[in-house]
Write a structure and sequence with these properties.
The chain is α/β, with parallel strands linked by helices. It has two domains: 5-125 and 287-306, Rossmann fold; 126-283 and 315-332, Dihydrodipicolinate Reductase, domain 2 (2-Layer Sandwich), CATH 3.30.360. It is 34% helix and 26% strand. The chain contains eleven helices and 14 strands. The chain has helices spanning 14-23, 39-49, 57-62, 78-87, 102-115, 131-139, 170-173, 176-180, 182-192, 286-300, 308-327; strands spanning 5-10, 29-35, 68-71, 91-95, 119-122, 146-154, 195-203, 215-222, 227-233, 240-247, 250-257, 260-267, 274-277, 331-332. The strands form two sheets. It has a nine-stranded mixed sheet with strand order 13-12-11-10-6-9-8-7-14. The chain has a five-stranded parallel sheet with strand order 2-1-3-4-5, with helices on both faces. A hairpin with a 4-residue loop joins strand 8 and strand 9 (227-233).
């Protein structure tokens, strides 16, 4: 077994740069090349971390420069790049959303399975505070069986992620529920389990250039019987990140993320809630943490923390929500 995984970074934008910098802090992986068709951007990142820039991703895959790739391109490019990487025998770490459509996800999973390479999806919220702590409390039974999970993520403005042209099109970005809320949908799945059905109300109120909703309430019915809700908006003057999990023996509530905010939890048999300042929750840097887990899985041949099927189910839930918002009907999901 190799001691270090040689990784090529595909896409030298903000997320690709974060990948490269994170990998360079790891002991069991290193970046050995950067690929980006934007030469200035690609060379800048390659120079920063002192590795070659190779232009298009095909050149990266054709040689023996890398064992694996991270894909940080726009979502509509994920399928093509991930399938090509798998067929070239390279392990694949693909940023969220896994792909734009469920069929694209299925094609990537099939290619990775056929090539017997590791495939992991970048759902970094699983590796950040307070979400690690919330999942720890749920998984160790601190609040009993989960009966509901609710997540809010709202922000506003027309700059930032909305400034790139591809982000204004549903078919290229996956829209609000995938480009942004793939994180929150995955978190809800981690808390409540697989989703049986979806009902959503949504609309576009502040971003006429985009062809998808900028505000949505998404209700979930989990297969285990619990219920869930995602409230998301990119059309709010006040930003907020919060959530709550209700169990048969207690409840958890958080407000904020990273090192800003608080988390509290309480059991029915306790008089007072336990309050934790998020700045006191010690976790490794999220991107480096998830990429270290990817490297571990690739080097040992073990199942990655976030599988292709996990990524596919997020995409499936998002599209069910879009369909429900249009039809005003509950959408039932297939068992997988």
């Amino acid at each position: 077994m190799a001691e270090q995984l040689r990784i090529g970074v595909i896409g030298a934008g903000g997320m690709g740069t974060s990948h490269a910098r994170g990998i360079q802090t790891l002991s069991r992986a290193r970046v050995t090349a950067v690929s980006d068709t934007d030469e200035e951007r690609g060379r800048k990142l390659a120079t920063e971390i002192d590795v070659p820039w190779v232009g298009g991703y095909e050149a990266l895959l054709s040689g023996d420069l890398v064992d694996a790739v991270t894909i940080a391109s726009p979502p509509f490019m994920h399928k093509e790049m991930a399938v090509a990487a798998a067929r070239a025998g390279k392990h694949v770490f693909c940023e969220k959303p896994f792909a734009v459509h469920v069929a694209d996800c299925e094609a990537i999973i099939a290619a990775a399975s056929e090539a017997k390479v590791t495939l992991m999806v970048g759902q970094v919220l699983r590796f950040l505070s307070p979400f690690i702590k919330v999942r720890e409390l749920v998984d160790n039974g601190s609040i009993g069986q989960v009966i509901s999970a609710q997540v809010t993520r709202v922000a506003g403005g027309s700059g930032g992620v909305w400034s790139a042209h591809w982000r204004s099109r549903l078919e290229s970005s996956g829209g609000l529920l995938l480009e942004i809320n793939a994180h929150e949908i995955d978190l809800l799945r981690c808390l409540g389990g697989d989703v049986a059905s979806v009902y959503a109300e949504a609309g576009n109120y502040m971003h006429p250039a985009a062809d998808y909703p900028d505000l949505a309430f998404v209700s979930l019915r989990f297969r285990g019987g619990a219920v869930g809700c995602l409230y998301t908006s990119s059309a709010s003057a006040l930003s907020s990140t919060s959530g709550a999990v209700q169990g048969t023996e207690g409840a958890i509530r958080y407000n904020g993320w990273g090192n800003r905010g608080t988390l509290e939890w309480k059991r029915f048999d306790q008089k007072e809630a336990t309050v934790i300042k998020l700045e006191e929750v010690q976790v490794p840097p999220g991107v480096a943490y998830e990429l270290d887990k990817f490297a571990e899985a690739a080097l040992t041949g073990t199942t990655p923390v976030v599988t292709g099927l996990d990524g596919l189910k997020v995409v499936e839930i998002a599209w069910a929500a879009y369909e429900s918002a249009k039809t005003r009907q509950v959408v039932t999901l297939p068992e997988r």
